[in-house]
Protein backbone atom coordinates (compact mmCIF):
# COMPACT_ATOMS: atom_id res chain seq x y z
CA UNK A 1 0.00 0.00 0.00
CA UNK A 2 2.58 2.56 1.09
CA UNK A 3 4.70 1.87 -2.01
CA UNK A 4 2.27 4.18 -3.89
CA UNK A 5 2.76 6.95 -1.37
CA UNK A 6 5.92 9.00 -1.36
CA UNK A 7 6.33 8.89 2.39
CA UNK A 8 9.95 10.09 2.44
CA UNK A 9 8.99 13.43 0.90
CA UNK A 10 5.94 14.01 3.07
CA UNK A 11 6.58 16.77 5.52
CA UNK A 12 5.11 20.04 6.72
CA UNK A 13 7.34 22.92 7.66
CA UNK A 14 6.42 24.76 10.81
CA UNK A 15 6.50 28.46 11.30
CA UNK A 16 7.61 31.23 9.01
CA UNK A 17 11.05 32.75 8.55
CA UNK A 18 10.34 35.19 11.36
CA UNK A 19 9.66 32.19 13.58
CA UNK A 20 5.96 32.73 14.15
CA UNK A 21 3.97 29.52 14.00
CA UNK A 22 0.48 28.21 13.29
CA UNK A 23 -0.17 28.88 16.96
CA UNK A 24 -0.19 32.56 15.98
CA UNK A 25 2.39 33.31 18.63
CA UNK A 26 5.28 35.54 17.65
CA UNK A 27 7.41 35.02 20.73
CA UNK A 28 9.26 31.80 21.34
CA UNK A 29 8.08 29.49 24.05
CA UNK A 30 10.29 30.44 26.95
CA UNK A 31 11.06 29.00 30.37
CA UNK A 32 9.66 32.21 31.90
CA UNK A 33 6.22 31.22 30.59
CA UNK A 34 6.13 28.51 33.25
CA UNK A 35 5.39 30.07 36.59
CA UNK A 36 3.47 28.93 39.65
CA UNK A 37 3.71 25.83 41.80
CA UNK A 38 3.39 23.50 39.96
CA UNK A 39 4.43 25.56 36.93
CA UNK A 40 2.55 23.68 34.18
CA UNK A 41 -1.23 24.18 34.72
CA UNK A 42 -1.50 27.84 33.68
CA UNK A 43 0.22 27.36 30.31
CA UNK A 44 -1.52 24.04 29.74
CA UNK A 45 -4.94 25.61 30.34
CA UNK A 46 -4.06 28.44 27.96
CA UNK A 47 -2.94 26.10 25.19
CA UNK A 48 -5.97 23.82 25.71
CA UNK A 49 -8.25 26.86 25.50
CA UNK A 50 -6.53 27.93 22.30
CA UNK A 51 -6.93 24.42 20.82
CA UNK A 52 -10.66 24.55 21.67
CA UNK A 53 -11.00 28.06 20.21
CA UNK A 54 -9.22 26.94 17.02
CA UNK A 55 -11.91 24.24 16.66
CA UNK A 56 -9.44 21.45 16.03
CA UNK A 57 -11.15 18.02 16.20
CA UNK A 58 -11.35 16.56 19.71
CA UNK A 59 -8.98 19.02 21.41
CA UNK A 60 -9.20 17.01 24.66
CA UNK A 61 -8.04 13.78 22.98
CA UNK A 62 -4.75 12.51 24.36
CA UNK A 63 -2.59 9.51 23.56
CA UNK A 64 -2.11 7.38 26.65
CA UNK A 65 0.98 5.18 26.91
CA UNK A 66 1.19 2.30 29.38
CA UNK A 67 3.54 -0.62 30.01
CA UNK A 68 2.14 -4.02 30.96
CA UNK A 69 3.43 -6.55 33.47
CA UNK A 70 5.71 -8.08 30.81
CA UNK A 71 7.20 -4.72 29.86
CA UNK A 72 5.22 -4.43 26.63
CA UNK A 73 4.26 -0.85 25.80
CA UNK A 74 0.92 0.17 24.27
CA UNK A 75 -0.68 3.45 23.33
CA UNK A 76 -4.25 4.45 22.58
CA UNK A 77 -6.32 7.63 22.55
CA UNK A 78 -8.58 8.61 25.45
CA UNK A 79 -10.48 11.80 26.22
CA UNK A 80 -9.22 14.07 28.95
CA UNK A 81 -12.11 14.81 31.31
CA UNK A 82 -10.32 16.91 33.88
CA UNK A 83 -7.06 18.82 34.14
CA UNK A 84 -5.83 20.82 37.10
CA UNK A 85 -2.79 20.98 39.36
CA UNK A 86 -3.62 17.47 40.65
CA UNK A 87 -3.28 15.95 37.17
CA UNK A 88 -5.17 14.81 34.10
CA UNK A 89 -8.23 12.56 34.33
CA UNK A 90 -9.69 9.99 31.93
CA UNK A 91 -12.38 7.31 32.21
CA UNK A 92 -12.17 3.77 30.93
CA UNK A 93 -12.63 0.08 31.66
CA UNK A 94 -10.67 -1.03 34.74
CA UNK A 95 -10.30 -4.57 33.32
CA UNK A 96 -9.32 -3.38 29.84
CA UNK A 97 -5.85 -3.96 28.46
CA UNK A 98 -4.80 -0.51 29.74
CA UNK A 99 -6.52 -1.15 33.08
CA UNK A 100 -4.56 -4.38 33.54
CA UNK A 101 -1.33 -2.64 32.56
CA UNK A 102 -2.02 0.15 35.06
CA UNK A 103 -2.78 -2.37 37.82
CA UNK A 104 0.64 -3.95 37.24
CA UNK A 105 2.52 -0.75 36.48
CA UNK A 106 0.73 2.37 37.76
CA UNK A 107 2.69 4.82 35.60
CA UNK A 108 1.82 6.32 32.24
CA UNK A 109 2.47 9.01 29.68
CA UNK A 110 -0.09 11.13 27.87
CA UNK A 111 0.49 13.31 24.82
CA UNK A 112 -1.90 15.95 23.53
CA UNK A 113 -1.10 15.97 19.77
CA UNK A 114 -2.28 19.44 18.81
CA UNK A 115 -0.67 19.10 15.40
CA UNK A 116 -2.86 21.71 13.70
CA UNK A 117 -1.53 24.18 16.27
CA UNK A 118 2.05 22.95 15.77
CA UNK A 119 2.05 22.08 19.45
CA UNK A 120 2.16 19.09 21.73
CA UNK A 121 2.17 18.65 25.47
CA UNK A 122 3.60 15.49 26.99
CA UNK A 123 2.95 14.31 30.57
CA UNK A 124 4.54 11.49 32.55
CA UNK A 125 3.63 10.36 36.01
CA UNK A 126 2.00 8.05 38.48
CA UNK A 127 -1.57 6.92 37.85
CA UNK A 128 -4.22 6.46 40.55
CA UNK A 129 -7.90 5.58 40.36
CA UNK A 130 -10.12 8.58 41.04
CA UNK A 131 -12.49 8.60 43.97
CA UNK A 132 -15.73 6.64 43.30
CA UNK A 133 -17.69 9.87 43.85
CA UNK A 134 -15.75 11.49 40.98
CA UNK A 135 -16.48 8.51 38.75
CA UNK A 136 -20.18 8.64 39.68
CA UNK A 137 -20.42 12.37 38.92
CA UNK A 138 -18.86 11.89 35.50
CA UNK A 139 -20.89 8.74 34.77
CA UNK A 140 -24.14 10.58 35.44
CA UNK A 141 -23.14 13.28 32.96
CA UNK A 142 -22.65 10.76 30.12
CA UNK A 143 -25.37 10.13 27.52
CA UNK A 144 -27.50 7.08 28.35
CA UNK A 145 -26.43 5.27 25.17
CA UNK A 146 -22.77 5.57 26.17
CA UNK A 147 -23.61 4.33 29.66
CA UNK A 148 -25.35 1.26 28.26
CA UNK A 149 -22.46 0.52 25.90
CA UNK A 150 -19.89 0.84 28.68
CA UNK A 151 -22.01 -1.41 30.91
CA UNK A 152 -22.24 -4.05 28.18
CA UNK A 153 -18.63 -3.91 27.01
CA UNK A 154 -15.95 -6.12 28.53
CA UNK A 155 -13.47 -3.68 27.06
CA UNK A 156 -10.53 -5.22 25.15
CA UNK A 157 -11.95 -8.78 25.34
CA UNK A 158 -12.63 -10.61 22.06
CA UNK A 159 -16.21 -11.01 20.81
CA UNK A 160 -17.31 -13.20 17.92
CA UNK A 161 -19.22 -10.73 15.79
CA UNK A 162 -20.78 -7.29 15.57
CA UNK A 163 -24.16 -9.02 15.99
CA UNK A 164 -22.99 -10.51 19.32
CA UNK A 165 -21.88 -7.05 20.47
CA UNK A 166 -25.20 -5.47 19.51
CA UNK A 167 -27.08 -8.30 21.26
CA UNK A 168 -25.04 -7.78 24.44
CA UNK A 169 -25.84 -4.07 24.38
CA UNK A 170 -29.55 -4.78 23.75
CA UNK A 171 -29.64 -7.18 26.71
CA UNK A 172 -28.19 -4.51 29.00
CA UNK A 173 -30.63 -1.92 27.64
CA UNK A 174 -33.54 -4.30 28.35
CA UNK A 175 -32.27 -4.84 31.91
CA UNK A 176 -32.52 -1.08 32.53
CA UNK A 177 -35.86 -0.40 30.87
CA UNK A 178 -34.75 0.05 27.29
CA UNK A 179 -32.60 2.52 25.40
CA UNK A 180 -35.09 5.30 26.10
CA UNK A 181 -36.04 4.03 29.56
CA UNK A 182 -35.98 5.98 32.79
CA UNK A 183 -34.22 3.46 35.01
CA UNK A 184 -30.79 4.91 35.83
CA UNK A 185 -27.88 2.82 34.60
CA UNK A 186 -25.54 2.22 37.56
CA UNK A 187 -21.79 2.70 37.24
CA UNK A 188 -20.46 -0.67 36.09
CA UNK A 189 -18.08 -2.19 38.64
CA UNK A 190 -15.48 -2.51 35.87
CA UNK A 191 -15.50 1.16 34.84
CA UNK A 192 -14.13 4.40 36.29
CA UNK A 193 -11.61 7.16 36.21
CA UNK A 194 -7.86 7.44 36.53
CA UNK A 195 -5.77 10.48 37.30
CA UNK A 196 -2.22 10.81 35.98
CA UNK A 197 -0.33 12.81 38.59
CA UNK A 198 2.47 14.40 36.59
CA UNK A 199 6.10 14.37 37.60
CA UNK A 200 7.09 15.90 34.27
CA UNK A 201 5.32 18.01 31.67
CA UNK A 202 6.93 19.05 28.39
CA UNK A 203 5.59 21.80 26.13
CA UNK A 204 6.60 21.64 22.45
CA UNK A 205 6.09 24.35 19.88
CA UNK A 206 7.02 23.72 16.23
CA UNK A 207 9.29 26.25 14.55
CA UNK A 208 10.93 26.75 11.16
CA UNK A 209 13.68 24.36 10.04
CA UNK A 210 12.84 21.97 12.88
CA UNK A 211 14.48 24.37 15.32
CA UNK A 212 11.58 23.81 17.67
CA UNK A 213 10.98 25.11 21.16
CA UNK A 214 10.80 22.61 24.02
CA UNK A 215 10.36 23.46 27.66
CA UNK A 216 10.35 20.72 30.30
CA UNK A 217 9.13 21.13 33.85
CA UNK A 218 9.90 18.34 36.32
CA UNK A 219 9.09 17.57 39.93
CA UNK A 220 12.45 16.68 41.48
CA UNK A 221 10.94 15.78 44.84
CA UNK A 222 12.12 19.01 46.42
CA UNK A 223 10.42 21.31 43.94
CA UNK A 224 9.70 21.84 40.24
CA UNK A 225 12.46 22.73 37.81
CA UNK A 226 11.99 24.37 34.40
CA UNK A 227 14.48 23.84 31.57
CA UNK A 228 14.70 24.43 27.83
CA UNK A 229 15.52 21.28 25.86
CA UNK A 230 17.18 21.01 22.46
CA UNK A 231 14.77 20.11 19.69
C1 LIG B 1 -10.74 10.14 19.94
C2 LIG B 1 -10.85 8.90 20.79
C3 LIG B 1 -11.21 9.01 22.11
C4 LIG B 1 -11.32 7.88 22.91
N1 LIG B 1 -11.63 8.06 24.22
C5 LIG B 1 -11.68 6.97 25.03
C6 LIG B 1 -11.91 7.14 26.43
O1 LIG B 1 -12.03 8.26 26.95
N2 LIG B 1 -11.98 6.04 27.20
C7 LIG B 1 -11.81 4.78 26.67
O2 LIG B 1 -11.89 3.82 27.42
N3 LIG B 1 -11.56 4.60 25.36
C8 LIG B 1 -11.49 5.66 24.53
N4 LIG B 1 -11.21 5.49 23.20
C9 LIG B 1 -10.93 4.12 22.74
C10 LIG B 1 -9.47 3.77 23.09
O3 LIG B 1 -8.59 4.41 22.17
C11 LIG B 1 -9.18 2.26 23.11
O4 LIG B 1 -9.52 1.65 21.87
C12 LIG B 1 -9.94 1.53 24.22
O5 LIG B 1 -9.95 2.28 25.42
C13 LIG B 1 -9.30 0.18 24.49
O6 LIG B 1 -7.94 0.34 24.82
P1 LIG B 1 -7.08 -0.81 25.48
O7 LIG B 1 -7.48 -2.12 24.84
O8 LIG B 1 -5.65 -0.48 25.22
O9 LIG B 1 -7.38 -0.84 26.97
C14 LIG B 1 -11.09 6.59 22.37
C15 LIG B 1 -10.71 6.48 21.04
C16 LIG B 1 -10.58 7.61 20.25
C17 LIG B 1 -10.14 7.47 18.82
UniProtKB/TrEMBL annotation:
Function of the molecule: Catalyzes the oxidation of either pyridoxine 5'-phosphate (PNP) or pyridoxamine 5'-phosphate (PMP) into pyridoxal 5'-phosphate (PLP).
A Pfam family assignment: PNP_phzG_C
EC supergroup of this enzyme: oxidoreductase
The protein's name: Pyridoxine/pyridoxamine 5'-phosphate oxidase
Family note: Belongs to the pyridoxamine 5'-phosphate oxidase family.
NCBIfam families on file: pdxH, PRK05679.1
Quaternary data: Homodimer.
EC number(s) per entry: 1.4.3.5
Binding residues annotated for FMN, in chain numbering: 76-81, 91-92, 97-98, 120, 155-156, 204, 214
Biological source species: Gordonia alkaliphila
Record domain Pyridoxine 5'-phosphate oxidase dimerisation C-terminal: where: 191-231
Note describing how the cofactor binds: Binds 1 FMN per subunit.
Residues the record lists as binding substrate: 81, 138, 142, 146, 210-212
Lineage: Bacteria, Bacillati, Actinomycetota, Actinomycetes, Mycobacteriales
Pathway membership, UniProt: Cofactor metabolism; pyridoxal 5'-phosphate salvage; pyridoxal 5'-phosphate from pyridoxamine 5'-phosphate: step 1/1; Cofactor metabolism; pyridoxal 5'-phosphate salvage; pyridoxal 5'-phosphate from pyridoxine 5'-phosphate: step 1/1
Domain of life: Bacteria
Reactions listed under catalytic activity: pyridoxine 5'-phosphate + O2 = pyridoxal 5'-phosphate + H2O2; pyridoxamine 5'-phosphate + O2 + H2O = pyridoxal 5'-phosphate + H2O2 + NH4(+)
Keywords per UniProt: Flavoprotein, FMN, Oxidoreductase, Pyridoxine biosynthesis
Amino acid sequence: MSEHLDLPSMRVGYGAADSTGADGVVEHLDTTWLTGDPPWPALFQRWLGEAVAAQIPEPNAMVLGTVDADGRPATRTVLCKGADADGVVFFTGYDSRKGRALAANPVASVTFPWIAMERQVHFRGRVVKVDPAETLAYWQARPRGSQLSAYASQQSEPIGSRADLVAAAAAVAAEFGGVDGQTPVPVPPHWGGYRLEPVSVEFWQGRADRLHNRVLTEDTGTGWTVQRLQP
